[in-house]
């Protein structure tokens, strides 16, 4: 069984792209392959003019460190470090000096100026995710991957983080790819890619939450109909044929 099947996608620079689909559709696998976290059995993955499918482990590590930013459901903050130290940690490990002008812009855009000396335990969930977002942005990566970034947040904090991701694209000219199952989250993007059974089956530009939800419901109906055809089950509400029990 293929986790991804004949996927051909071009992520636009300086845009916010959301990837949606039911559980098991291949959303996270696609993100992991695009980021070089998983290897592909066939095909190619490019980041700019670099074919990452041909890189060795050490080269992939360097590429992810220097050119890609990550956000996950788990904030992955170091509890003994304050917010600023968590933000600059990847650059500190790499021995890179942060661009202070850019770092200040990121911190101010995300509203973290008065939280830089706070440790994670002193921050709300939304503030912790903002720190994680700043960490992803701090090295000015070419591409940011966000895997269900609002999954562990309440609705208010989730909207806040999505707003900051939108701001990162609009004001900081970053490129964001977000995996999500939430139509409301997808509505913050410029483009939604819909996955089903490892394939990109549709896309939507200028999405709204209602339009995305309607499209997802349509896919659910199509999938249920296909499953019924395979199993021979009658459609819901259908009367059995004459002579059947």
UniProtKB/TrEMBL annotation:
Q: Which Pfam families match?
A: ABC_tran
A GO molecular function for this record?
A: ATP hydrolysis activity
Q: What keywords sit in the KW lines?
A: ATP-binding, Nucleotide-binding, Transport
- Known InterPro entries for this protein? AAA+_ATPase, ABC_transporter-like_ATP-bd, ABC_transpr_LolD-like, MacB-like_ATP-bd, P-loop_NTPase
Q: Which SMART domains match?
A: AAA
What GO CC annotations are associated with the protein? membrane protein complex; plasma membrane
Q: Which CDD domains match?
A: ABC_MJ0796_LolCDE_FtsE
User: Which ranges carry the ABC transporter domain?
Assistant: 2-222
Gene3D superfamilies for this protein:
P-loop containing nucleotide triphosphate hydrolases (3.40.50.300)
Instruction: Enumerate the transmembrane spans.
Output: none
PANTHER family from the xrefs?
ABC TRANSPORTER RELATED, IMPORT ATP-BINDING PROTEIN
Spell out the protein name for this chain. Answer: ABC transporter ATP-binding protein
């Amino acid at each position: 069984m293929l986790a991804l099947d004949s996927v051909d996608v071009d992520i636009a620079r300086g845009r916010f792209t959301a990837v949606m689909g039911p559980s098991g559709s291949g959303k996270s696998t696609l993100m992991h392959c695009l980021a070089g976290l998983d290897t592909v059995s066939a095909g190619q993955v490019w980041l700019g003019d670099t074919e990452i499918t041909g890189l060795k482990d050490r080269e992939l590590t360097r590429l992810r460190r220097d050119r890609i930013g990550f956000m996950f459901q788990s904030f992955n903050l170091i509890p003994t470090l304050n917010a600023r130290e968590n933000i600059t940690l990847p650059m500190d490990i790499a021995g890179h000096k942060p661009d202070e002008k850019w770092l200040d812009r990121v911190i101010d855009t995300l509203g973290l100026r008065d939280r830089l000396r706070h440790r994670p335990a002193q921050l709300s969930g939304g503030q912790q995710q903002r720190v994680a977002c700043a960490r992803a942005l701090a090295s000015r990566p070419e591409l940011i991957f966000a895997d269900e970034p609002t999954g562990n947040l309440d609705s208010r904090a989730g909207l806040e983080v999505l707003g900051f991701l939108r701001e990162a694209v609009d004001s900081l000219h970053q490129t964001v790819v977000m995996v999500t199952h939430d139509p409301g989250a997808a509505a913050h993007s410029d483009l939604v890619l819909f996955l089903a059974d490892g394939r990109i089956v549709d896309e939507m530009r200028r999405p709204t939450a209602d339009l995305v939800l309607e499209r997802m419901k349509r896919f659910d109906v199509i999938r249920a109909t296909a499953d019924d055809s395979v199993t021979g089950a009658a459609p819901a509400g259908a009367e059995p044929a004459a002579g059947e029990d």
